[in-house]
């Protein structure tokens, strides 16, 4: 692939992925593109498919673990370049690259409620929709009116909330589909109460989550009828460590990078935790973090 083919699209060669993930882990991406619109995304992906080049769509990198070996292909970043936001009455239309925390703040400033749960989720709108992100009793499916999705042929189709088939950390979005924007439907509320609720959730996060260390948030999906963090703690794995990756002592549901952890350190902790919890309680923990090798 000659990057000159795409001189009109903002990109970098041999870009360290550790700079683009909240885990601060990952080797170099051969090409790192920052498209500004769906047309540019389509151009990159069509080229990759024609030439059989691997590609991966990345938002804020808050739920992904890349290998230290890097990514021998193309990273397509849907982030700041695609974060335009339009608020009309009680609706917000935004590009997939906008941070959920920014959207939640914009909603609050307009006296719109319903996004408070998302104010501390570190990901983008697109990433949040793909995995139906949620926290503190709220989920993306509660506020999505429709999603604009680019299909493999470049067409952009509107999917209603129902069409999205949102479930626990899942949606209809797969490798052939890319979220480019979404319309959110909120409710009018009292700015002060909205602010107070966001502050309350922020304090809960700061007191319970290891925000002072790089991580990818909750490492494991919640198994039906259980809490991952409690199972891990009950299995005696609080503080369990391989290299510089560790089960957080503040919240066992988080695997953290204590400084200089490699991807194998994290994977070993994830596998050991999953195996130990399964041996002790017969429950298999599955990673919520996307593992890209």
Structural overview:
The protein is an alpha+beta fold and 293 residues long. The protein has 3 domains: 3-80, Uridine Diphospho-n-acetylenolpyruvylglucosamine Reductase, domain 2; 83-207, Uridine Diphospho-n-acetylenolpyruvylglucosamine Reductase, domain 3, CATH 3.30.465.10; 228-292, Alpha-Beta Complex (Uridine Diphospho-n-acetylenolpyruvylglucosamine Reductase, domain 1), CATH 3.90.78.10. Helix content is 25%, strand content 25%. It contains 6 helices and 18 strands. The chain has helices at 38-50, 100-109, 125-130, 191-208, 228-234, 263-281; strands spanning 11-16, 28-33, 55-58, 64-66, 71-77, 85-88, 91-95, 112-113, 134-135, 138-139, 144-150, 156-160, 178-185, 187-188, 241-242, 245-247, 255-257, 290-292. It has a 5-stranded antiparallel beta sheet. The chain has a 4-stranded mixed beta sheet with strand order 1-2-5-3, with helices on one face. It has a 3-stranded antiparallel beta sheet with strand order 15-16-17. It is globular and about 50 Å long. The two termini are 20 Å apart. The model has no long low-confidence stretch (mean pLDDT 96).
User: What is the name of the CATH topology of the largest domain?
Assistant: Uridine Diphospho-n-acetylenolpyruvylglucosamine Reductase, domain 3
Helix percent reads 10-25%
Question: Strands across the major sheet, in which order?
Answer: 6-7-13-11-12
- Biggest sheet overview: 5 strands, antiparallel
Q: State the CATH class of the largest domain.
A: Alpha Beta
């Amino acid at each position: 692939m000659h990057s000159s083919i795409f001189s009109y699209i903002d990109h970098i060669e041999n870009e360290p992925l550790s700079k683009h993930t909240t885990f601060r882990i990952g080797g170099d991406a051969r090409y790192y593109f920052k498209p500004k619109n769906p047309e540019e995304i389509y151009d990159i992906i069509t080229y990759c498919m024609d030439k059989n080049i691997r590609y991966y769509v990345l938002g804020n990198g808050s739920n992904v673990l890349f290998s230290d070996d890097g990514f021998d292909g193309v990273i397509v970043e849907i982030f700041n370049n695609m974060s335009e936001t339009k608020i009309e009455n009680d609706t917000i239309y935004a590009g997939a690259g906008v941070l959920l925390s920014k959207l939640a703040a914009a909603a609050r400033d307009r006296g719109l409620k319903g996004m408070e749960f998302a104010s501390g989720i570190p990901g983008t709108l697109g990433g949040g929709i793909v995995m139906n992100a949620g926290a503190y009793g709220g989920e993306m499916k509660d506020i999505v009116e429709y999603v604009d999705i680019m299909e493999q042929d470049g067409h952009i189709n509107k999917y209603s909330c129902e069409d999205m088939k949102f479930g626990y950390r899942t949606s209809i979005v797969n490798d052939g589909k890319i979220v480019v924007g979404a319309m959110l439907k909120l409710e009018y509320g009292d700015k002060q109460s909205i602010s107070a609720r966001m502050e309350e959730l922020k304090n809960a996060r700061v007191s319970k989550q290891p925000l002072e260390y790089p991580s990818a948030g909750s490492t494991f999906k919640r198994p039906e009828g259980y809490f991952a963090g409690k199972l891990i703690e009950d299995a005696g794995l609080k503080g369990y460590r391989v290299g510089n990756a560790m089960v957080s002592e503040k919240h066992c549901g988080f695997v953290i990078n204590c400084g200089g952890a490699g991807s194998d350190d994290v994977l070993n902790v994830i596998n050991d935790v999953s195996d130990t919890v399964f041996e002790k309680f017969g429950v298999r923990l599955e990673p919520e973090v996307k593992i890209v090798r």
